Fold this protein.
Amino acid sequence: MEVYRRIDKQLVYGIRPRNAEQTFAVDALLNTNIPLVTMTGKAGTGKTLLALASALQVRKNYRQIYVARPVVPLSNKDIGYLPGDVESKLAPYMQPLWDNLKVIQDQFLESDKNYQLINNMIKDEKLVIEPLSYIRGRSLQRIYFIVDEAQNLTLHEVKTIITRAGEGAKVVLTGDIYQIDHPYLDSQSNGLSYLIEHFKGQKLYAHINLEKGERSELAELASNLL
């Protein structure tokens, strides 16, 4: 028997959902009974921001928040072609995640405990932002694991991530299936699309497609027209 319930907007670590889809997303992201969540949508719809804010909101249920994204070089050239050391090569790929975290942090004054908590979590490695390739060898017990840009993952990579989820873990994958940088994947063959199609109807899973851009009026216009 299908059961419907009312879902109200919830403030998550200073971030308030701005539309119905974001409200549904936050509900799923906070729900410990749903260990797997996928969110799709174009740039500016708030996928990564909501995932990060929700993870911070329920941080006490997890021993670590781990945020990662695959490094997919443009023009199919390895990062070895780029100048500098490994950190400087990876920095441009990871910066969008730090930018989203900064947006959340800036909801508070620097003297506020919520602002300082984020700095402390980073310092104590309770909040880790790294390339997805660094996951190898990590134990995913009681970890809130966010994978950004998941449309650039193969089916094998998505399966590897989810099958490593231990007891008490939550896995969140976000992405835009129409904005793929991987040279051998498309909107149908990528791992995120495959996961969404095959997990439909599972009780441990929720999927939300965010449609409205909320970054700014200009960003929404550019996303629709360009």
